[in-house]
Amino acid sequence: MDAVDSVLMVARAQFAITISFHIVLAALTVGLANFLLVLEGLWLWRGSKIYLDVYRYWLKVFALNVVVGTASGLILEYQFGLNWSRLSTQAGDILGPLMFYEVLAAFFLEAGFLGIMLFGMKKVGPRLHFFATCAVAIGSLISAFWILSANSWMQTPAGYTVGADGRFIAENWWAIIFNPSFPFRLAHMTLAAFLGTATLVAGVTAWQLMHQPQNPRARLQFSMALWMIAVLTPLQIVVGDLHGQHSLKVQPQKVAAIEGSWTRPPEGAGEPLRLFAIPDMAEHRNHWEVAIPRIGSLYLRHDLSGTIAALDEFPAEDIPPVPAVFFAFRVMVGLGLLMLGQGLTSLVLRWRQRLYAARWMLHSCVLLTPAGLLAMLSGWVVTEVGRQPFTVYGLLRTTDSLSSVSRQQVMGSIWMILVFYLLIFGIGLWVLLRLLREPPHEDEPGPQPTLADETGQS
Prior knowledge:
single chain; mainly alpha; 2 domains; two-stranded antiparallel sheet; 13 helices; 6 strands; about 5% strand
């Protein structure tokens, strides 16, 4: 490994560390903001104070998440400037405005109305307070919109021209923003954020119900979380299939890496479903492969005889790191199937009126607490590692995006970031566990309406 490859590897490792922390918090911001929107809306609609108690409870978790998420976001921006300045130089005319719009949504819409959510109910009344909650929830979705637009453009660039100096110049902003992979990525990631939040809420509440099985507020949030999982998991599977079909057209190397397909099967033999294998980048083959014939063709081509372009049909220098993509995809799908089972089981138990009494179900939900977030992280590994060796797919290689930094500089900043994360996330996790230790109770501390507005009427 030469000096450039060494620097590249540690720079990519730093990006993986920063994005992994931040994306979890960003997803929880989207999921919790919209959960709070539904809770306060139900309080105003039905006039039942139980919804307000649960709202106050999760509002504290949401505020903590925003604080820690802002800190991790600043670190992420810092490492962009440190390690990837050539990417900024080459693609800044396009990525800069998209990132700027995200900052406007995150800091001016979300952060601006968060103060009203936390402290303003007595000042502005329930209806204007609900407007603030809506603004924060919508702001979180707008923020995700711009970030995913920028990321999708790097995956499927469109609407640009290349200047004499090699820089990407915006030509058609409509084509840039709504680039080919953007609709699929936006839907898939938004659903992932909702499901990650739902499994977290279900797991936390299941733990609370194991200790206080008759708590009505714990039952409410447990029921709402499982409804979300039951409804959205099948939808996510459909969206994921559509996303995969599109990726097969625009990023065939990525799909070949996902499947661990080194050589195309004989005509008519179909593509196998490889349940397990150990891909070997040096020998261009799989070890210990366990596969079911033809089943891969069923979800890849929607028939039993279709095949896909294999890895040996692409230049060796354009093949992504196959093992990481191969295993991350299987982790994502495996966790998705577990969540599908969780949702379907909840429907059966709800029908039998045993949703809160089946302790094995509560234990299962506790075990699946991180499932949605881990599936989302695995999906991002597939997305980002599968795009390699490019930052702007097919146009700008990751090696050519790297700043003129030394390995020692990047390693030094990694240690600084890890120390910072250990401090910030350590404190944040300690506070979070204290908040979630007890279920919500009647008259939960938080934003209080006036006595005249206790029923949600202004």
